[in-house]
């Protein structure tokens, strides 16, 4: 781990320098390894992660072992921020589904900075609003839309947060994200390949044709993306540069 030297996370970049200084001495850069679990449902939140690259899915684990993803987080957001609301176990399991890096701070240190800085408190509030949009629209999508459209939506969510067109996702990972059987994933992937929206290989790599994939997805991806961007960019011109679809300018913590 090394101390972060520049800012490529949108939330950190939106903070005034004086407020960022409450966090900067405690931030350390860490690798987000593929399939790493950053926090686990039912366990205390130990760290807050501000991704600089990569994509993380928030997963709900059911008692029978089934899972489903409820939100995606990349360099526009953070994982573990809700720890500031008080000591309680994590409600979701955070899994890295595209490797990257993040600035990490202990939850206790972040809580101390949260108490000192109105700007950090406002940022947490905006982040929570953006996550609620994902949770609400995602719940409706899971209930109303077919698996193939939902798969396309999730591939787009993850693609939004990386800088290349290859997603390292196995069918098992997609099964866990979508909360469906592997056979259902196989059929949906076959249909998306037939439409030219994706190409996949036996190594668990999916190459995305973004425009064709968008045509196969339900409207939830675009609706969610635009609403989240609006929340995160209101009165925050610096944060507006870090759109969910990628860093448009600046690439430095």
From TrEMBL:
<dbReference type="GO" id="GO:0003677">
    <property type="term" value="F:DNA binding"/>
</dbReference>
<dbReference type="GO" id="GO:0005829">
    <property type="term" value="C:cytosol"/>
</dbReference>
<dbReference type="Pfam" id="PF13545">
    <property type="entry name" value="HTH_Crp_2"/>
</dbReference>
<keyword id="KW-0804">Transcription</keyword>
<feature type="domain" description="Cyclic nucleotide-binding">
    <location>
        <begin position="11"/>
        <end position="122"/>
    </location>
</feature>
<dbReference type="GO" id="GO:0003700">
    <property type="term" value="F:DNA-binding transcription factor activity"/>
</dbReference>
<keyword id="KW-0238">DNA-binding</keyword>
<dbReference type="InterPro" id="IPR018490">
    <property type="entry name" value="cNMP-bd_dom_sf"/>
</dbReference>
<dbReference type="InterPro" id="IPR000595">
    <property type="entry name" value="cNMP-bd_dom"/>
</dbReference>
<protein>
    <submittedName>
        <fullName>Crp/Fnr family transcriptional regulator</fullName>
    </submittedName>
</protein>
<keyword id="KW-0805">Transcription regulation</keyword>
<dbReference type="InterPro" id="IPR012318">
    <property type="entry name" value="HTH_CRP"/>
</dbReference>
<dbReference type="InterPro" id="IPR050397">
    <property type="entry name" value="Env_Response_Regulators"/>
</dbReference>
<dbReference type="InterPro" id="IPR036388">
    <property type="entry name" value="WH-like_DNA-bd_sf"/>
</dbReference>
<dbReference type="InterPro" id="IPR014710">
    <property type="entry name" value="RmlC-like_jellyroll"/>
</dbReference>
<dbReference type="Pfam" id="PF00027">
    <property type="entry name" value="cNMP_binding"/>
</dbReference>
<dbReference type="InterPro" id="IPR036390">
    <property type="entry name" value="WH_DNA-bd_sf"/>
</dbReference>
């Amino acid at each position: 781990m090394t101390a972060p030297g520049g800012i490529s996370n949108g939330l950190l970049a939106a903070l005034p320098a004086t407020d960022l200084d409450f966090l900067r001495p405690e931030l350390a850069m860490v690798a987000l390894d593929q399939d790493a679990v950053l926090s686990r449902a039912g366990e205390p939140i130990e760290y807050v992660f501000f991704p600089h690259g990569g994509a993380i899915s928030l997963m709900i684990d059911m008692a029978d072992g089934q899972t489903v993803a409820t939100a995606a987080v990349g360099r526009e957001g953070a994982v573990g921020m809700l720890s500031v609301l008080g000591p309680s176990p994590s409600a979701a399991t955070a899994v890295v589904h595209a490797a990257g890096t993040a600035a990490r701070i202990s939850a206790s240190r972040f809580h101390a900075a949260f108490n000192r800085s109105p700007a950090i408190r406002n940022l947490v509030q905006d982040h929570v609003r953006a996550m609620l949009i994902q949770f609400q629209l995602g719940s409706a999508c899971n209930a109303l839309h077919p698996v193939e459209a939902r798969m396309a939506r999730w591939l787009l969510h993850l693609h939004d947060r990386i800088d290349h067109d290859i997603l390292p996702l196995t069918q098992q990972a997609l099964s866990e994200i979508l909360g469906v059987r592997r056979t259902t994933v196989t059929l949906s992937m076959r249909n998306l390949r037939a439409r030219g929206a994706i190409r996949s290989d036996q190594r668990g790599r999916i190459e995305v044709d973004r425009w064709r994939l968008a045509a196969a997805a339900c409207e939830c991806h675009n609706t969610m993306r635009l609403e989240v961007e609006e929340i995160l960019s209101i009165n925050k011109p610096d944060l507006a540069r870090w759109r969910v679809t990628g860093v448009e300018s600046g690439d430095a913590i």
